[in-house]
Design goal:
The complex is a heterodimer.
Chain A lengths: L3 H8 L5 H17 L3 H18 L8 H26 L14 H18 L2 H11 L5 H8 L3 H24 L8 H10 L2 H6 L2 H7 L1 H13 L6 E6 L2 H16 L5 H22 L2 E8 L5 E8 L7 H5 L12 H8 L2 E7 L3 E9 L4
Antiparallel strand pairs in A: 1-2, 2-3, 3-5, 4-5
Chain B lengths: L7 E6 L2 E6 L5 H17 L4 E5 L8 H16 L3 E5 L3 H10 L7 E3 L2 H12 L13
Parallel strand pairs in B: 2-3, 3-4, 4-5
Antiparallel strand pairs in B: 1-2
Helix pairs in contact in B: 1-2
The chains are: A alpha+beta, B alpha/beta.
EC number (chain A): 2.7.11.1
Protein name (chain A): Serine/threonine-protein kinase RsbT
Family (chain A): Belongs to the sigma-70 factor family. ECF subfamily.
Chain lengths: 359, 134
């Protein structure tokens, strides 16, 4: 166990006079809080090591406040650790997870992926990102160096992080995107920018591209979970039931009446079935609306063959299978607003809205 | 139905079959239900069928059509069908959708449904009927 005396020796080098001068104040702070002398000595030493490591980054004259804060943090984290230990003492299990045999390998793969992803960023992006995330340089000083505003640096960092996430996932999968639309779409998802996602038609691309559909999951999970929408993939007739239940549950939060909920669920059921029958697969997005009044919007997208003649498909009684031709016209009657956009060979998008009565 | 609670139950009660749907069914489950029911009409020589749909929160075009088909197939097999328990909200949505059960008879609940079957099958022309008569 080390003592404060050794620390004094170790730090009393001519090129680090500042840190040595901090010892009395650090000792005073730590000893005032920790009764056990040996433990206190350890904490003093730990504080000084941290201050020493950071001394180059800390502005001259600020070293003392920095040391005081560090000392307090070090003491607090020891308390936290002790507390956790006390709380968990009754458990027989070892809280430190055992090292799995493949842990090293996973760590290595992850490390390689990060390295590769970083290498794919531009030189300027990489430098700024590392300066901020690793060396802890703040946006203001980076802005000074680069001759731009701090806001611009923050925005650039945000973009770089989004790009890094995309490249990391690609490197981890060791996959090269099959189309030149993949990267823009993944980037738009990663940065969480709705307008950009619409511009690159991300929703359609995810239906068409299996790689992006897979990679999009971790990218979208990351963002704030959006309470006001639910997205259901439609692949089989079991998904029709999931879609109408999902729509009902979401709409129930806006205090639609039971009847309105049933109407919405029925309309969703109809268009979801159209996807399964004619397109094979697609997705249904249900969103809650606040403006101009409470309502729910359902967007059903597929990448199927498209509808040759939308007017004919909307006509009562028209049917291409042995149903009753109620799919589209039936859903239209149930909802307040209804629009179909279809392109042959590209698929169909149905958008429909129900407003809450008296809302 | 593979494991878990039964999605539907088809019970025999004298010469009647009472089929209850317990939860939302997807299309293939509905079709399987239809086949099971039609088969059992033959196996038990049933004359009347009650289909209880009180647990369904949605009856869309496919669901309504399947129920109509069941009734028609049952008729061809010599049984009368009555659908009971359509919820008020479901009834509203079915009408809005432009979908009904057509000529299939419906009743408010199981009791009304059985009463309907009794009154239509209690005639001397249907001597095979047992039970439900005083």
């Amino acid at each position: 166990m080390s003592t404060a005396g050794e620390v004094t020796d170790a730090t009393a080098q001519p090129d680090q006079p500042d840190v040595a001068a901090l010892i009395p104040i650090v000792r005073r702070i730590v000893f005032a809080r920790v009764a056990d002398r040996a433990a206190a000595d350890d904490l003093v030493q730990e504080t000084l090591v941290r201050v020493l490591a950071a001394s180059e980054r800390v502005e001259p004259g600020m070293l003392e406040p920095y040391a005081i804060v560090t000392a307090r943090n070090v003491v607090a984290s020891m308390w936290k650790q002790e507390d956790r230990h006390r709380r968990n003492q009754h458990r027989v299990v070892d809280l430190a997870p055992a090292q799995e045999p493949d842990e090293n390998l996973l760590e290595r793969e992850e490390h390689d992926a990060v390295t590769e992803a970083l290498a794919r960023l531009s030189e300027r992006e990489r430098r700024t990102l590392l300066a901020h995330e690793v060396s802890g340089e703040d946006t203001r000083s980076l802005a000074n160096e680069l001759g731009v505003s701090a806001g611009a640096v923050a925005a650039q960092l945000n973009r770089s992080r989004a790009r890094l996430r995309v490249e990391y996932l690609l490197a981890l999968e060791q996959a090269e995107p099959p189309t030149d639309r993949c990267r823009p779409v993944l980037f738009a998802l990663s940065i969480g920018d709705r307008r950009r996602q619409r511009e690159v038609d991300a929703a359609r691309h995810l239906l068409e591209c299996n790689l992006c559909a897979r990679l999009s999951e971790p990218l979208m999970e990351r963002g704030q979970p959006n309470d006001n929408e639910t997205r259901i993939r439609i692949r089989s007739d079991a998904d029709i039931v999931l879609a109408r239940q999902g729509a009902r549950e979401l709409a129930a939060r806006l205090e639609f009446s039971r009847t309105e909920l049933t109407v919405i669920a029925t309309a969703v059921s109809e268009i979801a079935r159209n996807i399964v029958r004619f397109a094979g697969q697609g997705e249904i997005l249900v969103e809650l609306l606040e403006n101009p009044r409470p309502g729910v919007r359902v967007v059903a997208r597929d990448t199927g063959p498209g509808i040759e003649d939308v007017d004919q498909a909307m006509a009562q009684g028209y049917s291409t299978y042995h149903g009753l031709g109620l799919g589209l016209p039936g859903a239209r009657r149930l909802m307040d607003e209804f629009a179909v956009v279809s392109e042959r060979g590209r698929g169909t998008t149905v958008t429909m809205t129900k407003w809450r009565q008296g809302g | 139905m593979n494991g878990g609670p039964a999605l539907v139950s088809i019970l025999r009660q004298g010469s009647y079959l009472i089929a209850s749907i317990h939860t939302a069914l997807d299309d293939s489950q509905l079709v399987r239900f239809q086949q099971d029911l039609i088969n059992q009409i033959g196996r038990y020589r049933s004359r009347g069928v009650v289909i209880d749909v009180a647990a369904l929160d949605v009856l869309d075009s496919f669901g309504s059509k399947t129920l109509r088909n069941v009734a028609e197939m049952a008729r061809l097999r010599g049984a009368i069908t009555v659908i009971v328990g359509i919820q008020p909200d479901v009834a509203f949505a079915m009408v809005e959708l432009g979908m009904g059960t057509g000529s299939v008879h419906t009743a408010l609940d199981l009791e009304e449904g059985l009463a309907y079957l009794n009154s239509h099958l209690a005639s001397p022309a249907a001597p095979g009927v047992v039970g439900f008569q005083d």
